[in-house]
Design a protein that fits this description.
This protein is an alpha/beta fold and 603 residues long. It folds into 3 domains: 3-246, Aminohydrolase, N-terminal nucleophile (Ntn) domain (Glutamine Phosphoribosylpyrophosphate, subunit 1, domain 1, 4-Layer Sandwich), CATH 3.60.20.10; 252-441, Rossmann fold; 446-585, Glucose-6-phosphate isomerase like protein, domain 1 (Rossmann fold), CATH 3.40.50. It is 35% helix and 24% strand. The chain is built from 18 helices and 27 strands. An 8-stranded antiparallel beta sheet has the order 3-2-4-1-10-9-11-15, covered by helices on one side. The two termini are 31 Å apart.
């Protein structure tokens, strides 16, 4: 969830860039940096951790008068969060910031190494600045070199580059990552990866399209696509910062539901190469001597862990137990050193999960954290960490954190299967191919959202909800019920569909709402039979399925899929939207529900 900002003008550039980067803190980051053109030379500063660390490094630096500056907040993808890997990256006379991933960076890097170029960082970004400087030796001017560079890159990128060979300019490019150009009546130029850092500075903005690139200075804006000049289209910029951070959505939770497709792309970025799962952050010896896994977590993270239990045993063929952290602490657990202890936490500060991790560490177990916040307590304590890269989640009811946790655990399950050779090569290739396509399963269908808005008015009264599903859809049913409870304050419970007849069915009548997950790829006929039992007892039933169910009172259609995880993620979106719209109908504060905190740091 990296952030980019840029500026051309006469104001104090250091302060302006740092202020703009603060507007992007909500996206999440683990390091930051700036580069400022001043009197024909470039000064650059980088720091890991929060922006306060960067502010301390630059406290004695000033940058008045005409010039250009770029800034960046980084969430590590290639290489660990270190100052060397932080942006901006530099060559002999140029600095670059970049969001996204350059898919062909290895080929470019190898070619440049043969030309005698030495690289400092582990990042894909560094190849772009060296390639630009290499191209400059055989180009008429800096723009021609930049154009050659951009047309050589494959992948997703938003790029800003400054160079002493064109000291009054910023070169830019955009493909599959957001980048916005802004301007005002004072002749100042601004760049941002979202609206928020531009508000209060720019009057008009141009939202760049994929494949566009160009160069800007105080005199002109040159914009190109496929080597052809195009006319930039500017529009007025709304001046409401909270609106900009919500990007036009009513609530942060709604925005976070919609951005899950993009966020999943961030989770996968750099972790699938040459049809293999590559988790460079893990020690290669982590799984030696391991014959079992214990997963420990709370709340939504516990539900992600339950889903992982199915994936680990199905693909990695390794015994997996899932424990609620608040119970684990007091049960005198049996811990053996052939067990990998996995903790899951969005914040990395969850008190019960942190204490469980300490118990496992004291028992001598190898430990692994699945977390969204680098440098958090859990990340610092665990032997190894896989960051989920969800970015900051402002809605208290977790959405994208859950999605990225499940995706990360699925990655890990395939990674273990790959190492242990526990499934066939064909099965692995099929899983990886599906995993790569998952972000498209998370694109919200507007027609479906509108239908959920209409349906929501029918689910405001009654004496409760059952959410039911089988196999991996049982943890999803639990998560759907939790989402509804958290923000609507209505009673809801998740159950395995096959367990309804063992007691809970006694509650069923016309005022008991049942949300049934009926995937076509997983135990369809058996789940259908369970739903029929509820219908026979006059339950009000909402079925979510690719095929219409004749006994359903309401029906939300999903896409026909060939893989269970496509159905899982599509149904996850629907459950999140259903909870959201019911809560909106009830007039509740969706982002800040009563009695709840985002990070539970007490027992």
């Amino acid at each position: 969830m990296c952030g980019i900002v840029g500026y051309i003008g006469k104001k104090e550039k250091k302060e302006l860039i740092l202020s703009a980067l603060k507007e992007l803190e909500y996206r999440g980051y683990d390091s930051a940096g700036i580069a400022v053109m001043k009197d024909g030379r470039i000064d650059a500063f980088k720091a890991i951790g929060k922006l306060g660390n960067l502010e301390k490094k630059t406290k004695d630096f000033t940058s008045h008068n005409e010039g250009a500056a770029i800034g960046h907040t980084r969430w590590a993808t290639h290489g660990k969060p270190t100052e060397i890997n932080a942006h901006p990256h530099f060559g002999e006379h140029s600095y670059i910031v970049h969001n996204g991933i350059i898919e062909n960076y290895r080929e470019i890097k190898e070619a440049l190494i043969k030309e005698g170029i030495t690289f400092l960082s582990q990042t894909d970004t560094e190849v772009a600045v060296y390639l630009f400087e290499y191209n400059l030796k055989n180009s008429k001017n800096a723009f021609e070199a930049f154009e050659k560079t951009i047309l050589s890159l494959k992948g997703a990128y938003a790029i800003l580059l400054i160079t002493t060979t064109a000291p009054d300019s910023i070169f830019f490019a955009k493909n599959a990552a957001p980048l916005i150009v802004g301007k005002n009546d004072e002749g100042e130029i601004f760049f941002g990866s979202s609206d928020a850092p531009l508000i209060g500075h720019a009057k008009e903005v141009c939202y760049l399209e994929d494949g566009q690139y160009g160069v800007l200075n105080k005199n002109e804006i040159l914009l190109y696509a496929d080597r052809k000049k195009v006319l930039p289209v500017f529009k007025d910029l709304p001046q409401d910062k909270s609106y900009a951070q919500k990007e036009g959505f009513r609530f942060f939770m709604e925005k976070e539901i919609y951005e899950q497709s993009r966020v999943l792309g961030e989770t996968l970025m750099g972790r699938i190469k040459n049809n293999e799962i590559v988790l460079e952050e893990l020690d290669e010896h982590l799984f030696e001597g391991i014959s079992a896994v214990k997963i420990c977590a709370c709340g939504t993270s516990f539900h992600a862990g339950l889903a992982a239990g199915y994936l680990f045993e199905r693909f990695a063929k390794i015994r997996t137990d899932i424990i609620i952290a608040s119970e684990f602490r007091y049960k005198e657990p049996l811990l053996t050193k052939d067990t990998l202890f996995v903790v899951i936490s969005q914040s990395g500060e969850t008190a019960d999960t942190l204490e469980a991790l300490k118990i496992a560490k004291n028992a001598g177990l190898k430990t692994l954290a699945i977390c969204n916040v680098d440098n958090s307590s859990i990340v610092r304590l665990a032997d190894s960490t896989i960051l989920t890269r969800a970015g900051i989640e402002k809605g208290v009811a977790s959405t994208k954190a859950f999605a990225t946790q499940v995706a990360t655990l699925w990655l890990l399950a395939i990674f273990i299967a790959q190492k242990q050779k526990s499934v066939s090569k064909e099965r692995l290739e099929s899983e990886i191919d599906t995993l790569l396509k998952i972000p498209s399963s998370l694109i919200v269908d507007n027609a479906t959202h509108e239908k959920i808005k209409r349906l929501s008015k029918r689910y405001l009264h009654g004496h409760g909800f059952f959410f039911i599903g089988r196999d991996i859809f049982y943890p999803l049913a639990l998560e759907g019920a939790l989402k509804l409870k958290e923000i609507s304050y209505l009673h809801a419970e998740g159950y395995p569909a096959g367990e309804m007849k063992h007691g809970p069915i006694a509650l069923v009548d016309s005022k008991l709402f049942t949300v049934a997950l009926l995937p076509k790829t997983m135990l369809y006929d058996k789940t259908k039979n369970n739903i029929e039992e509820l219908s026979a007892r006059d339950a009000t039933i909402l079925v979510i399925s690719p095929e219409r169910f004749e006994l359903a009172d309401d029906f939300i259609k999903t896409q026909h899929s060939t893989h269970v995880m496509n159905e899982f993620f599509e149904m996850m979106i629907i459950l999140q939207l259903l909870a959201l719209e019911i809560a909106v109908r009830l007039g509740n504060d969706v982002d800040m529900p009563r009695n709840l905190a985002k990070s539970v740091t007490v027992e």
